[in-house]
Amino acid sequence: MMPFNRSSNPDATRRRLNVALGLTAGAPLWLSASAARAAALPPLPRYTQPVEAHSPLVGRILQRGRQFISPQQLVDDCARATLCMLGEQHDHPDHHAVQAWIVSALGQRGQLAALALEMADAGQRFDGPRDAPEAVVRARLRWNDDGWPWAMYAAPVMAAVRAGVPVVGVNLPQADMRAAMQQAKWDASVPPAVRQRILDDVAESHCGLLPAAQLPAMARIQLARDDSMAAHSLALAAPAKTVVLLTGSFHADRTLGIALHIAAHEARLPRGIARPVRLFSLLLDGLSPETKPDLPAGYDAVWFTPGTPPVDHCAQLRQMMQHQGKP
């Protein structure tokens, strides 16, 4: 989660951001450097969401050391990693547009090994042809449109298809989740403090509606999913190229998610891949009026986009559980 600094005056917040970012009335500061290389990149995505759409942070990319970098530099950093994780807000159209841009840029430069997806189960994959229609791609991946609306993900998935690289599901299959709930080994797969954070997140993300007794089993599923995504993403690694993984921001957090399971699978890396595995984690962050230009500790960079209108997810979850006959 991004740290917030609440202010009753959004315009004052924007003025402070203008000062902090050193913006002028002209183009962003990074445009004067690497202009020739940047010209070869695809056109940057257009943002569609309304919240803080005119903030000076929109489209800016912050890396460690509180330095702003260009999209060109972001692609370079992603390309140098064996696995580049793009941590999204699942229902944010602008995040998927940014993902499609990154996938297209890497594919255009011949640096994309594969696209790995949290949104498809391990064992499902598409290996071409690159001119396949969307319907064929969806069928090969056995896409679950109820859980992951295809309209959200078509752009990044098809960008990888058009680049001629494999598109591969890496998530824990639904059929394996019940078994994972009973496997105590997952409790010790991460440090105790991390497991507690995951337990807290499971409780919060379910709006306190889950009985406390169910939380450990749900946390085991989360850990097993992270392990599955780590193992199956690494299996796609190729020398001098990067595997891009589309996943939720919590999974992409290097202090909590997939990164903690990488070491367990390094011994089975394909030949020619250096150890330890080099990771890069990008947080895609939709702005609110309170957002500060900060980078959370679990990420290598953050790309700011406009925010989505607020949605009461807890009300939606309560309604769904009532329809399922649960309290």
From TrEMBL:
Residues 1-38 form the signal peptide. Residues 75-261 form the Haem-binding uptake Tiki superfamily ChaN domain. The keyword Metal-binding does not apply. Keywords: Signal. Pfam families: Cofac_haem_bdg. InterPro entries: Cofac_haem-bd_dom (IPR007314). This is Uncharacterized iron-regulated protein. It comes from Thiomonas bhubaneswarensis. The lineage of its organism: Bacteria, Pseudomonadati, Pseudomonadota, Betaproteobacteria, Burkholderiales.
